[in-house]
Write a structure and sequence with these properties.
The complex is a heterodimer of chains A (221) and B (142). Chain A is built from nine helices and nine strands. By secondary structure, chain A is of the alpha/beta class. Chain A starts with 5 loop residues before the first helix and ends in a 7-residue tail after the last strand. In chain A, strand 8 (201-205) and strand 9 form a beta hairpin. Chain B has 142 residues and is mainly α. Chain B has six helices and no strands. Chain B has helices at residues 11-14, 22-25, 44-49, 71-82, 89-102, 129-141. Chain B is elongated, with a radius of gyration of 25 Å. Classes of the chains: A alpha/beta (221), B mainly alpha (142). Chain A binds chain B through residues 7-8, 10-12, 32-33, 36-40, 67, 69-75, 85, 94, 97-103, 105-107, 120, 124, 128, and chain B through 1-16, 56, 58, 83.
């Protein structure tokens, strides 16, 4: 399969890892993905001071409210649970049932900012770390269920390596030298990233091939 | 970003039916040999072995501090060894009762105005009896 164009890459069902330092434009890019996708999109947000602002859609503070949003045909949901680690496990399990119930004909998308806090790199074997395992399940099995996973992190060195590897596309913004070292094996074109316009990132295919530049519209900044 | 995604099903079409609750299944009121459970299905055993709520290890800072380390660090190490997020509730209760007893136990029969605090006699200092209430209040507020 070829990398395709940027729109093709962003519209298809494959997972996207969004990597880069803070204030570089990656969250704005994810906000636009969430706001414009034709999929049902759920943004799993944090409460309090770390909550990403201006996320489109109805706000669900409990899992029941997420279910209600689906029942009301809402296509944009900002899920703000008390504990994201517990919530992502429950959400993954339920979305698998939703996908099966829909015969996998309902395209969905899950976006998690600061995903390394939910799925940090750990030596715990699969089955012993539920939130990380849920992210792994999203990235490994979501595609065939029509669930696209978008994980955002400014610290790829602490993000679960398996989940990162299972992201077919990687949208990369500027990052520190030590973070560049941590992802040196992924073939990112940091020269091109450095030369990109302000707030633009470079979308890479998992082979390292550059797909193109990505940048959010001003209104999503 | 639209175009390639086919939407033949709406979200409301895809919401799965929720599984029946235990109240709906057990409608004949038959006597159960199972241990008593809370309305959410939690058994007494589950409650005693519960480790929630507990501060995640990742959020517990542990700088070298001989004055404040010691037991805290040992506790953290035990958690890592057992791969649990916290001490089971039954351990908290047991240790707490021992600590309470060591601190003087219940203040039975002592006057409020007794100034012989800290001399080791049963009942302890006048402000001790409030400690257990404070702990219970903290636990119930979590």
């Amino acid at each position: 399969m070829s990398a395709g164009t940027v729109p093709e890459a962003l519209e298809n069902g494959h997972n996207v890892a969004v990597l880069g330092a803070t204030q570089t434009g990656k969250t704005a890019f994810a906000r636009e993905l969430h706001a414009t996708t034709p999929r049902v999109s759920i943004w799993l947000n944090e409460r309090g001071k770390d909550r990403v602002p201006d996320v489109d859609g109805v706000v669900a503070r409990t899992f029941d409210e997420v279910r209600d949003a689906f029942a009301s045909d809402e296509y944009r949901v900002e899920y703000v649970p008390a504990d994201r680690n517990e919530a992502i496990v429950e959400l993954q399990d339920w979305l698998w049932r939703v996908a099966d119930n829909a015969d996998r004909a309902l395209p969905m998308q899950v976006i998690v900012d600061e995903v390394d806090r939910v799925a940090p790199e750990s030596q715990k074997p699969y089955g012993n770390f539920p939130p990380r395992d849920a992210v792994r399940d999203f990235t490994s099995e979501g595609v065939k269920r029509g669930v696209k996973f978008v994980g955002i992190t400014q610290d790829p060195s602490t993000y679960d390596k398996k989940a990162l590897r299972q992201s077919r596309y990687r949208a990369v913004w500027e990052m520190s030298a030590e973070q560049q070292g941590a992802v040196s094996g992924y073939g990112f074109d940091f020269g091109r990233i450095r030369d990109a316009p302000q707030y633009a990132g470079v979308l890479h295919y998992h082979t390292g091939e550059v797909v193109g530049e990505v940048k959010a519209e001003e209104r999503y900044a | 970003m639209r175009g390639a995604v086919q939407m033949d099903v709406s979200p409301s079409d895809a919401v799965p039916d929720e599984p029946e609750t235990s109240e709906e299944i057990d409608s004949d009121h038959s006597v159960s040999n199972d241990p008593p459970t809370a309305s959410d299905g939690t058994t007494v055993k589950d409650a005693l072995l519960s480790t929630q709520p507990e501060q995640r290890l990742e959020s517990v800072e542990a700088p070298y501090d001989p004055e404040r380390g010691g037991v805290t660090r040992v506790y953290r190490g035990v958690r890592k060894m057992l791969d649990v997020e916290g001490l089971p509730a039954v351990a908290d209760i047991g240790i707490g009762l021992i600590e309470w007893y060591e601190a003087g136990g219940p203040d039975i029969g002592s006057d409020e105005g007794d100034d012989d605090a800290g001399d080791g006699e049963v009942g302890g200092s006048p402000d001790r009896p409030g400690d257990l209430d404070a702990v219970l209040d903290e636990v119930s507020s979590e």
